[in-house]
Amino acid sequence: MELNKIYQYDCCEGMRRVADNSIDIIIADPPYNIGKDFGNNKDNMPLQDYLNGRKNGLKRL
User: Fold this and answer.
1) Quick one: CA torsion of 19, 21, 26, 29, rounded to 10 degrees?
2) Considering only CA atoms, which of 54, 53, 56, 34 is closest in space to residue 44?
3) CA-CA distance, 61 to 53, in Å (whole number)?
């Protein structure tokens, strides 16, 4: 990936494209699973599904 260029990917897909050891910090704003309606029903998951999804996402970081 090039510096100073904007890429539009799903966050998980984009993270797979970033070279290892090339990032110093990540600031994340995950879904908080509080039932807010974003029009996709992804913020109202069963607790275990939510926790598993966050755990898998953090492994990718």
Assistant:
1) 50
2) 34
3) 13
Residue 26 token pair: 């990540």
DSSP readout, the chain?
--TT------HHHHHHHSPTT--S---------S----SSSTTS--HHHHHHHHHHHHHH-
Are 32 and 41 a contacting pair, CB within 8 Å?
A: no
Q: Which amino acid is at 23?
A: I
pTM above 0.90, yes or no: no
- Dig out the tokens for 16 from the structure: 């797979």
φ, ψ of residue 12 in degrees (nearest 5): -70, -40
pLDDT confidence of 61, banded at 50, 70, 90? low
